[in-house]
Amino acid sequence: MTTDDFRRNSENFCYRHPDRQSFVLCQRCLRTICPECQTQAAVGVICPECLRDQQKAQSPAQRRAERRWSRPQAVAVRDTRPIVTYVIIGITAFVYLLTLIPGIGDAIQSALLFWAPTLYPSFFPQFGGLVEPWRLFTVSLVHSSFWHIGLNMLALFLIGRSLEPLLGRWRFVTLYLLSTLGGSVAVTLLSFGTPVVGASGAIFGLFGALLVIGRHLGANIAGIAIVLGINLVIGFIPGFNVSWQAHVGGLVVGLLVGFIFTRTRAARQRGLQIALLVAVAAVLVALLFVPVVFPTAVIR
């Protein structure tokens, strides 16, 4: 869809505020509503007109029961604060501080970083140990330096405060986790024996999703594309010690998940959206079996 097509489509804007773009639909009439027009209901959010209709339909007994138990009317607007973004930043910063403690810091980092051979102790006994699948995700919690975590968390803050309110918290968490998994899978397939740390895979996934969603909304994405391109190029420059594999893996997954979100935003498509996200996760897990089936192609 082109930018002009998007702007001419009224379904992409709040029906009460035509100048405001939104991804949220009223759960009763399925019209697009902005945060100011959203009222939390028993299931999802509803628009002001549906709220009035709902209140008019109440029986006298229902009104008396509501007054008796002092249940407030559902008039609060949707909380658009990027809570998940703040929580991820807080947890990551806490783990980084733990890694600075002498005596236990190195052990914590060693237990959480991603190293592909730890997923296959039975198939590659030369690496020893037990299977440690949690590393696929905990890699995003550990960082190599203050600048490493600082730049990643700054990027997360700048993207998350815009993307999380747009997607909603659960979609944002799903995007972050799938992008982290995508980065780990790419490292497994393209750099099997390299230990990696950092949330770069997840950050590139957020970049990718923001790129797709911004394009769908008709926003100017030139700035995002330039920043993304610069960061990708840095990963290929010798001497920077950056895992470009994690960047590419997270980016590809982020682009795919962002596309799924833009094409399944209607309430009636919620089941399809969940099924597609599960399918993405299943494909990523399936790719982890490639080293078992084709060990010589992966282990160098």
Residue share in β-strands: under 5%
Report the CATH topology name of the largest domain: Rhomboid-like fold
Text of the CATH class of the largest domain: Mainly Alpha
How does the major sheet shape up? 2 strands, antiparallel
How many separate helices? 14
SS-derived structural category: mainly alpha
Sheet with the most strands: spatial strand order: 1-2
The rounded distance between the terminal residues' Cα atoms is 43 Å
Series of H and E elements? HEEHHHHHHHHHHHHH
CATH architecture of the largest domain: Up-down Bundle
Task: Detail the poorly predicted runs.
Answer: 69-77
The CATH superfamily of the largest domain appears as: Rhomboid-like
Please provide the count of β strands.
2
Q: Round the mean pLDDT to the nearest integer and report it.
A: 84
Give a brief description.
The chain has 300 residues and is mainly α.
